[in-house]
Specification:
Chain lengths: 189, 199
Amino acid sequence: MNEVASKPVTRFVPLIVFAALVAFFVVGLVWNQTHDARFVPSPLIDKPAPAFRLPRLEHPTQFLTKADMLGKPYLINVFASWCYACGDEHPTLMAYRDKFGIPLIGYDYKDAPQDARAWLQRHGDPYHEVITDQSGNTSLDFGIYGAPETYLIDAKGIIRYKHIGPLTPEVIAKDLEPKIRALEQEGST
Amino acid sequence: MKRLLAWLEPLSPRERGRGEGTDSRLASSSRVTEPSPAPAGHPLPEGEGKSRLHHIKHVLAAALLAFALTLSASAFAIDPLPFQSNAERVRFQHLTRELRCMVCQDESLLASNADFARQLRRQIFDMMQEGKSDREIKDWLVARYSTFILYDPPLASSTIALWFGTPAILLAGGIVVVILLRRRTRPAHAIAEEPGDDW
């Protein structure tokens, strides 16, 4: 045994194993710091958006459907008057609504229409159109599980991008804006 | 028992104050924010045992109450869905226990009281009434919420390490043990000559 233990290579095996374990822990910790497990990439990306038919907030007897929106790209922003983070996101939407260059559709999620109207009146309305999903039934097809969430849907009705959580100027500059510009390129060719 | 009592001590600043000979509540309560003195092996003053026991009873009662509340919380989460049979209910509970509530992360769809979970439970119940199989229901969910919603991860290229990592490490360890044992047993006489081997 002694001659085995004295071999330099075997002697360092426990150290190497230990170092490997430490490396696992460090990678795991760092990964957890930089990734939020809640932000699950949607499996619906590059798939057709679900066919929706939802009442408009301002005219509840009129419906907006997926077919109405075909032909040009648009954004769907999921919000609710009860959603705290939506309040954080709101100034960003107000500032960017005209810079996106495409319609911004508000998706009022599991909310009473009068609450949503009051909320938009108080804070300002960044949306070109607001649709309401009071029951949340359509939200299941979109894979929505909270607010705020933002979808970019192209002219053919395909979901091209989804952001979970509030949009920030950084996210818009880094992810959303380039995707919108890319869609415009696609559309012009 | 004494050990347990000593361990419980930092939970009770008021008691500690008395143990140290101060009877002023003000003085002892101001102590709460101070770092607690090392509790382990702290000598237990005579005559304090009875009140400590009392204290333990309170702690145990509180713990029991908390436990009972967590049990009832999961009971509340289950909406009164009109199951047609007990078998159907068991199947529903089994299925939703394997599904992650996306908004509350470490709760299953069965246990969660979140609105999202309630709605999906209803949805799953309706799909069961339509005669959908567990497989179909899971596929429906995965198509919308990704495999993250499954607590049991499917075998995929991204989960190979998860599935085979542990058996691989175990196997490697077993091989190392076998090699070491063989090395040790072969020169048996060499070991017999060295009783002081510290291996």
